[in-house]
Amino acid sequence: MKVGVAKETAPGERRVALVPEALGKLQAAGLEILVETGAGAGASIPDSAYTEAGATVVGTDALYEQSAVILRVAKPSAAEVARHRSGQAVVGFLAPLIDPATAGALAKQGVTAISLDAIPRTLSRAQTMDALSSQANVGGYKAVLIAANTYGRYFPLLTTAAGTAKPANVLILGIGVAGLQAIGTARRLGAVVKAYDVRPETREQAESLGAQFVKLKTTIDATGAGGYARELTAEERAAQQAELNEVIGGMDVVITTAQVPGRKPPVLVTAEAVEKMKPGSVIVDMAASALGGNCELSRVGETIDTSNGVTIVAPDNLPATMPAGASAFYARNISALLLGMVKDGALNLDFEDEVTKATVITRDGAVVSEAVRKLIDPAPPATPAAAGGQA
Ligand code: NAD
């Protein structure tokens, strides 16, 4: 079976789905690898490195004509969806819950869409396939480097002949995969780190990395399904906000990573909290997207300087800013997923398998993921009264 590696076309996307080091295992499983010309360029991997690893470098037409499966990082553009043949499969971060229309278009095209964002993350067997974690790890690390680079003072305590520099006070909001990596990285740079999350079990994890857990007087346990957080109620949000505002005001650097699956990221740093921060303070909002971010003032892809001298950075796609390192991890994840779905050198989808069941979102011309189907075609209102409402 021929497996194609697409050149990413999303703006700013510099990662690539497979790196040359990952080809050996796939070839040993009977797969032939085709790589689109220039696919690795953004990650500083020349075509020749893929050829040396045994792949064939091909043009775009040949890639879509010959591949049974196409591997990619970001979801395909509309033009790329149109290039797919019926019966072909595509694997990548297809983001079907954010962009159900692309999933619908892939189904219409007869493509089997396999989405890495849907991996059941708590399944221990799926850990090697967990690209959300590997990429969040890159993001957490890079967010701290951006914060350190933007902050006009030292992160570590420094005693020199010219005087002493105080260490930076860093607050990490959201202690998931990215938050834990951010704590570790900020600690290694010598900062004094505080961290906060609405899932109580994160306290021990944060403390084990050397952060002080921020315990609010209002007890909130928002542990949701699958290890994720649930959305807070309006009362919980108000109580959390009032207390967090006080903590945020004393910080030099705030890095936010909080997400709630399928929802707009919660606002944790309000405009009022930003106003209380000292001039020179830095906020890096990792949760920022077109849906909004954890900071009320952040604008995705932009760096803003507020009138009271706070810099708010809202990076768009942090893993893509470390393309070689991020791609190496991603390649291992996507290879592990693909190898679990291959038998005798061909794609063999077993829907009894938990990973296959969760990640295959379209097949045989239909959207098979219930959650995605609901987004594309919400159930009609049960009664005319419900439809008409009071308006
Ligand atoms: P995420 O990106 O969904 O969210 C990041 C963090 O934000 C989470 O820790 C969440 O609790 C927190 N958050 C949400 N709302 C908040 C609020 N209002 N205030 C403060 N914090 C808030 O999380 P993630 O990094 O993808 O990880 C989610 C979970 O999955 C974690 O429990 C993680 O340990 C788990 N996980 C498990 C495995 C595994 O078992 N193999 C692998 C990866 C992740």
Q: What does this protein look like?
A:
α5 packs across α13 (370-376), α6 runs parallel beside α7 (177-188) and α6 packs antiparallel against α11 (323-339). The protein is built from 14 helices and 19 strands. The longest helix has 20 residues, at 131-150. With 391 residues, it is of the alpha/beta class. β5 (89-93), α5 and β6 form a beta-alpha-beta unit. Strands 3-2-1-4-5-6-18-19 form an 8-stranded mixed sheet, sandwiched between helices. A 7-stranded mixed sheet has the order 11-10-9-12-13-15-14, covered by helices on one side.
Lay out the secondary structure.
Elements: E1 2-5, H1 23-28, E2 32-36, H2 47-52, E3 56-58, H3 60-66, E4 69-74, H4 78-83, E5 89-93, H5 100-108, E6 112-115, H6 131-150, E7 158-160, E8 163-165, E9 169-173, H7 177-188, E10 192-196, H8 202-208, E11 212-213, H9 234-249, E12 253-256, H10 271-276, E13 282-285, E14 303-305, E15 311-313, H11 323-339, E16 342-343, E17 346-347, H12 354-359, E18 360-363, E19 366-367, H13 370-376, H14 384-388
Helix pairs in contact: 5-13, 6-7, 6-11
Bound molecules: nicotinamide-adenine-dinucleotide (NAD).
